[in-house]
Amino acid sequence: MPLRIRLTIWYVGVLAAMLLLFIAGTSFVLYFQLFHQLTRFAVQDIETVEGLLYFQPDGKLTLNENYHNHAQSRYVLERLLEVITPGGQVIYRNERLGNNFLDQSPFAGEGVNGYSERSSRLQNGQRIVLVSRRHNLQGRPIIIRLGYEQAAIWSRIEEFLTASGTALPVLLGLAGFFGYQLSRRSLLPLRDMATRAEQITAEQLGQRLPIANPADELGHLAMSFNTLLNRLQQSFDRLRRFTSDASHELRTPLAAIRSVGEVGLQNSRTPSDYEDTIGSMLEEVTRLTNLVEALLTISRADEGRIELSFSQFSPLDLTREVIGLIEVLAEERHQEVSVSGVGSVRVRGDKLLLRQALINVLQNAVKYSPDGGKISVVVGTSPSGRATVTVTDSGPGIPLEHRRKIFDRFYRVDEARTRETGGAGLGLSIANWAIQAQGGQIRVEDSDQGAKFLIELPID
Ligand code: ADP
Fold this sequence. Notes:
By secondary structure, the chain is of the alpha+beta class. About 50% of the residues lie in helices and about 20% in strands. The protein is built from eight helices and 14 strands. The strands form four sheets. It has a five-stranded antiparallel β-sheet. Strand 5 (about 115-120) and strand 6 (about 125-135) form a beta hairpin. Helix 3 (about 215-265) runs antiparallel to helix 4 and helix 6 packs antiparallel against helix 8 (about 425-435). The two termini are about 60 Å apart. The structure holds adenosine-5'-diphosphate. Adenosine-5'-diphosphate binds near residues 396, 398, 413, 424 and 426.
């Protein structure tokens, strides 16, 4: 069932329940008000009756014959009047009451010190308001009872119920109509949003939901949805860029292998020519393997499949270990690698990941420093109380405008220069991810000569 109809049904249902409750409550209050009004009248009338009653010389109780002349006493005719002795003997009943009696024998203290008011029934089942009062007439105690039929009260309540019963369906009908219009109108933006959302596909992620009123709940929903679309679009774009960049990077070494192979087949004759060809092809294969491994690391990191295993270790020891690995490369180019720092500094992190990050940064330092250049690594602490590893080389350095971007995937400062050296622009982005994953940071600092990378890590 559509939401707008369900809302309307709920709305009308709740309103109906409330109106019924209101009608019931009002009837109740009306009954009590009318009942008390009748009682008040009865009390006044008893006082009139008291003045009109007298005992004849023969002891017969009579109502003053001239009562018709009294404006108020005329009403007594319309009442039910009964006078009894405290012993319960009926000594007077008016015409209206006839052979009926108002109540059973008097109860103890009936009408003494005031008026006894109560609800009672005649023999024919008619409900009455009954008021009694004890009185001393010519030295004889009597109990005057005056009854009022409650029919008037019930007919008033009936009138009220009939009027309410007629108005109720009309009111509910109107409420239903306007409630439906209101919910339909308030849900209209939702329909527009749904229509627009149905049109959004992976190819059209640039589309956004319409926001009718940013301040209301639906506007808030649309904004949240749009923010989600923004994020989705960004990751889709990233993914697309990554796939196309990765394919591009893979294509280069593959094309190189192919052309080296083709040239080798066409021109080479001597075994040493073949050796050269195979050597070049293997070089490209190594480059390809490294690239595929980097891509795998990145995709595993993106999926969150790389689980960190934290331990305490000395960054100085780790740096020495990494330098041991890249020293061969540096020696080939007659570069000097120095390491210094505080051995007591200990960090808490994933040693393997940090090792990979350091390898990437140091490999770059070797790669981009000239033959015979100098690379220095210093381990220490920062003023903010973190462990630092600073890698400085004697290469061309990194221009200011590229310093942030070099940590992006596939980003190279100088395409032609770096492709030659074999980099795909992934090394620093992996290092950046690895360092950030353990609460650290890597950035390029100003330096007089060459590039200076500063790695900050949380101290244990
Ligand atoms: P690559 O595999 O191309 O070296 P990286 O992500 O490691 O990719 O580095 C990104 C780019 O940053 C490099 O292409 C290079 O232009 C620049 N770069 C990185 N390290 C250095 C450095 N020590 N000296 C100069 N440029 C560097």
